[in-house]
Amino acid sequence: MASTTLSRLTHSLKTLKHHHHHLLLRPISAFPSLLQEPQLDLSPSTTAIPTTSDAAAAAVSSLPPNPASGSPLYNDNWRTSSTTSGSLIPLITPTPTWSEVHALSKTLDAAGIMDVFADWTTLQRWTDVKDLFELWTRSLDRKDGKPNRPDVQLYNYYLRANLMLKASAGELLDLMARMEEYGLSPNTASFNLVLKAMYEAREMVAAQQLMDRMLETGKESLPDEESYDLVIGLLILENQIDSALKYLDLTLKSGYMLSTTVFANCVRSCVTAGRLDTLTSIIERCKKMDQNKALCPSWNLCNYIADVALQTDHSQLAFYSLEFFARWIARGENARPPVLLSVDEGLIVSALGTASRTYNASLSDASWEVLKRSLRQKRVPNPESYIGKIFAHSSMGQLQRAFNTLNEFEAAYGDSAEAEELFSPFTSLHPLVVACSKDGFATLDSVYFQLENLSNRESPYKSVAALNCIILGCANIWDLDRAYQTFEAISGTFELVPNIHSYNALINAFGKLKKTTEATRVYEHLISLGVIPNEKTYSLLVDAHLINRDPKAALSVIDEMEKAEFIPSKETVKKVRRRCHRELNDELMEQVKALVQKHNYRITGDNRRDLLFRLQYGNNFS
């Protein structure tokens, strides 16, 4: 009875061992399985009691080497590990032999092959993937004895393995055609693998043909984001902008998200080719899509876009480039640690100039906001920035905002050494003068009354520079009465002191109406008050005498100008020479020639201008 029980127990153990051995033959990963249960080591070296001779041998064992001896043992660390040093967990990447691959092809089903391919793809064992697939498709199924038939995903592993083994696009197309033997139709992933091979080989025409085939086939093989990225990137590399834009349009219509690389390449290609309107439409369409509105070129590419847009006065594209700058600045401020990015102020001045020439209020506002975020209240903007902003508001007829900017400008640079030139209505503030006199006396009166109301508030705003613009604006419309009344209001109504620009504007008003005597009296009056005339003062007096056809008086003013250590401009000397020539005064012409030689001016003749005075109008046409 005991022997029978023992025989049954032995048979059960053998059966259990056989099943256990069968389970071990089907690992779930590509790595060899390790026994995880702890077991005692019963070897004699560990169980034997140490003897006296062993203790003596242990007592005479050598010490580790001296660290000062330069032993390589102390030079190895985790950065520069030697190949001889041991490792607790060695990296095991076994390479299966041909017999093992053959055995796997006989024993695994489709699901098991899929798991093996996933592991081998991670390990980049492409040759094994290819061999196993070819062996497996030639083997019979263990269940029904029919040939193994892969599905589309399994076949895509085979295509990927061939792609990674440098197979050409033609070879991949032949392999994809063999899918019909298994009753399969290639899906989008299958076509993408062929497109990658075409991208590597720069086969542009074949890629477009394959893309058109994908569009015509059906839902399972319609292009996805990766398909469009590959084709668009290839066309941009081959400088085929129109074809690339066609597929880019299809991408946006399909609702896919553009990759950052494709978007940057498209932007760079459009800017280089001068397709600024096309680039603007692409950016507008991307902004309307939730998945693409976050696209933003790199900082350097934003600078490139802004430079090209400002050179061509493309206001909308310049506005988008400033939007990209604002995103980068916000990202830098939100980063930890923060990255403080700033836009070059010269670029902002150029943007304000473009806004004034194209009458784009959005570009003007965006330029100023980006400038303030770049400066971060550490300093005030440069005078050129304020002048550019005044120019922009003046050209668009926004006089109230222009005068507000002038107020900020005076608060920042009113006491500087360059204040006289910065607030001159003849140069820096001339756009504001033109805007005030654009609609005649109606605009001038409106601006004057607004300034008068602002001067009566609790925190009054009084500005001589603003009133000077009104005086010169009145002179531009030949309205001497308004110019003189505004000049008197500076010291009367506004309780301010006229500066040299105020007197120059009044001299200009008298000179235009040939009132040379009154203009000279204004000059004598400012001299008596101790106001120092500038170069513009003498130039306006010369113009007044020339308008009155008195070149001799004009030359006398130039003499006084030189005594005051001012040099007459080439344009002023040219005007005097022209008047002397028309008055046929040879004596004065000699003085003008001496003046030209003294200042080394090169003044060409006025033959083409004089043709206008020798025209004979009549009805006899040749």
Automatic annotation (TrEMBL):
Keyword line: Repeat
Ranges of the PPR repeats in the UniProt entry: 499-533, 534-568
A Pfam family that the UniProt record links to this protein: PPR_2
NCBIfam families the UniProt entry points to: PPR
The name this protein goes by in its record: Pentatricopeptide repeat-containing protein
Species, as recorded: Acorus calamus (Sweet flag)
